[in-house]
Write a structure and sequence with these properties.
Layout: H1 13-21, H2 33-65, H3 69-94, H4 96-105, H5 119-153, H6 175-224, H7 251-304, H8 311-349, H9 358-371, E1 378-379, E2 383-384, H10 387-409
Antiparallel strand pairs: 1-2
Helix pairs in contact: 1-6, 2-3, 2-6, 3-7, 4-7, 5-6, 5-8, 6-7, 6-8, 7-8, 7-9, 7-10, 8-9, 8-10
Transmembrane segments: 37-56, 135-153, 173-194, 281-305, 311-332, 382-401
Membrane topology: Multi-pass membrane protein
Family: Belongs to the insect chemoreceptor superfamily. Heteromeric odorant receptor channel (TC 1.A.69) family.
Length: 410
């Protein structure tokens, strides 16, 4: 059977298309110097107009109403989200070449050898990344659309009102001015939401692809000793079939098995380096997102207790869902890396090492010693991305929510 090459870069086609439109990611098609300068000028305008300008109006509005809990909460939930997004914007603009290099690594021979048996694992990882991106984009755009229409359809609102709170140095309620500000708010928030989702699903998507590489590693370890079967049909969408061969006794075959084991070790080392590279590039952005997420989940829950049942209420429920999904994607895929890397140790142990030569057993023993420490993605070395971290965030948010509600009831 011939080689089957799976282009991993296609996992992020939608992400980079969105980011390119909004001035955060230079398209690969732009090669001429003058076109590059034009795009950078557009990027400077887009980021300042849609993101920095709107963020400043939110910050000033919070300062103007500070002291009133209800008004401060109403003005701050989206502002804190945007503040958490700021390090990610800077990271993607300043480190776009490094991010491209990380993604290109997934097409290197160590990760993508064109082996037909590996293709289902790679395709499944790509499918997960694309699924997460599409679902998250749909949720975020639906939230913004509800914010856009609720002032016009919500019967609980009697006067003209802007969909979101922000400060402007002029009267925003004049007819023409109101319409322009209305459009500016919705367009800015939509651009910020879609670009933020695209950045988040690049980072979480790389973790999902790392999990796919760990599946491939387990499969290759299983092939070293064909009688090994390391997974059942329910644990992975790709069925790992048990292969029956005659017992391996000759010295030449033992040497070949040792070479196969060394290839698996090299693959494992490459995965470790790949995770370290992800941490160095995305760690600050992920940490800022988690810190902002704790606060935003808290104040959004508090705001839901203040507003009546209305279209705006449902838009805030959807917004809260987006925040939970955003953090959950990081934690879920980070947890999958921990679980799958732990299963690599089991796969190595099941290679019938006791029937192999001394050299094979010594190499395997060193490899298994390293595998005793599960791989994990850390956020600036403070905490690892896992389901445990997700639960801790929910608990922290609830604690702050209880304090905020107590202060309001006084």
């Amino acid at each position: 059977m011939g080689e089957i090459f799976v282009d991993i870069r296609q996992s992020f086609e939608l992400n980079f298309r969105v980011l390119a439109v909004f001035g955060i990611w230079p398209p690969d098609s732009i090669r001429d110097t003058w076109k590059v300068y034009i795009y950078y000028a557009y990027s400077f305008f887009a980021v300042n107009y849609f993101f920095i300008g709107y963020l400043l109006s939110e910050i000033i509005d919070i300062i103007m109403v500070f002291g009133d809990i209800e008004k401060t909460v109403e003005a701050s939930f989206l502002c804190i989200t945007h503040l958490g997004q700021l390090p990610k914007v800077i990271s993607f603009i300043a480190r776009n070449h490094r991010i491209k290099r990380i993604i290109d690594q997934l097409n290197d021979p160590i990760f993508n050898r064109g082996i037909p048996e590996h293709a289902p694992f790679l395709e499944n990882s790509k499918r997960i990344v694309k699924r997460d991106t599409r679902i998250f984009l749909f949720l975020s755009s639906s939230t913004v659309m509800l914010w856009a229409v609720f002032p016009m359809l919500d019967k609980t609102i009697s006067n003209w009102t802007l969909p979101l709170k922000a400060w402007y140095p002029f009267d925003a309620m004049k007819p023409v001015t109101f319409q322009l500000i209305y459009f500016y708010q919705i367009s800015s928030v939509l651009v910020d939401a879609l670009s933020n989702v695209s950045k988040d699903t690049v980072a979480s998507g790389l973790m999902a692809l790392t999990g796919g590489q760990l599946d491939i590693l387990r499969y290759d370890l299983a092939k070293i000793w064909p009688r090994t079967q390391i997974a059942d049909k329910t644990s992975n969408p790709v069925t790992m079939k048990k292969i029956s061969y005659n017992e391996i006794k000759t010295t030449e075959e033992d040497k070949q098995m040792t070479k196969d084991l060394i290839k698996c070790i090299e693959h494992h080392q490459a995965i470790i380096s790949f995770i370290v590279e992800q941490e160095e590039v995305f760690s600050i952005g992920v940490t800022s997102q988690f810190v902002a997420g704790v606060v935003v989940i808290c104040i959004t829950a508090f705001q839901l207790t203040l507003v009546p049942w209305s279209l705006y209420y449902f838009s805030m429920v959807l917004y809260q869902t987006c925040m939970l999904v955003e953090i959950f994607l990081y934690c879920y895929h980070g947890n999958e890396i921990i679980v799958k890397s732990s299963m690599v140790l089991d796969a190595a142990y099941e290679t019938s090492w006791y029937e192999r030569g001394t050299n094979f057993r010594q190499i395997l023993d060193i490899f298994m010693t390293r595998c005793r420490i599960p791989l994990q993605v850390n956020a600036i070395k403070i905490f690892s991305l896992s389901l445990t971290a997700f639960v801790s965030i929910l608990r922290s948010s609830y604690s702050y929510f209880a304090v905020l509600q107590h202060m309001h009831n006084k």
